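$ run holo --ligand "NAP" --emit tokens
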Amino acid sequence: MRIGFIGTGIMGRSMAGHLLAAGHSLHVFNRTRAKAEPLVERGALWHDTPGDVAAACDVVITMVGLPTDVEEVYFGGPAAVPTGQGIIDRARTGTVLIDMTTSSPMLAERIAMAAGARGLEALDAPVSGGDVGARNAALVIMAGGDRETFARVQPILGLLGKSITHLGPAGAGQRCKLANQVAVAIGMVAWCEALAHAQAGGLDPAAVQQVIAGGAAGSWALTNLAPRALAGDVAPGFMVKHLLKDLAIARECAAATGIDLPGLATGERLFTIAAEKGWASDGTQVLYRLYSPSEGLRQRSSSPRP
Ligand code: NAP
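-- output --
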């Protein structure tokens, strides 16, 4: 199949690589061309705009950063993509568009409507599993959109993930991913506090991590991210700024349904402090640094509440 891939960053470069390895003809675009070069060296074809990719392909996958980036590549936009050179402008009738970026459910609905009006089909299919899951083709994929379209592209998604689920109409995949991110953010706070608590009590946090990761407190993040945090490795992985983007969308969706999520608010507040310290492009495991005595969180959190 001729498959387009737009957004060859931390996640996209591995995902696109699996499609290439499976023998598909791969067409790529990324805002910074250098990040697509390793794929081009392996046989992918470079195009100068998302529209050019779309015009050449049967299926187009996007894995960009923010909802504004998604808007830009689908509809054309102010910075990286000239007007008229968006995916929806140029794709041929029948092309399937799959946005795997973590983005807004409302935007997914808007893309699906615009695609339908042009005889295209659109799915939202965000993922969980991190950079490790992308590298190992072991992502959890959560899809929204037309069920038959989903069934048609499932073999392609199967090259990227091990758990692939259709959850409902356009936007349903994004809504599931937001639920995932609420759990991720609160879970990050949980293991950071657990290890800070152990360390303050005189224990070796690395030993505690190994023990509790195998018990009821175990989680993907405690197993995969806590060791990086304890080793002082804050390379992303998953960037703080992307988690904050997700939490803002989740907060807006929660507000729209009238539900109060105090754990989400705590996670968002703590990751905002991390971003304000200049750690926005670090991996989310940098949160653990906030709990070191030199960062002052200790005083702030333990001050008497009004
Ligand atoms: P990333 O490394 O920043 O990759 C995003 C890529 O998209 C970058 O290479 C970026 O270009 C490109 N891009 C952005 N806007 C573009 C545009 N208008 N036109 C063309 N290319 C554009 O981020 P990532 O970690 O791979 O994450 C991608 C998405 O997956 C995010 O929504 C994130 O929340 C989600 N996600 C990430 C993880 C994870 O563990 N990393 C896990 C699950 C989901 P530049 O090279 O110029 O920056």
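-- notes --
The radius of gyration is 20 Å.
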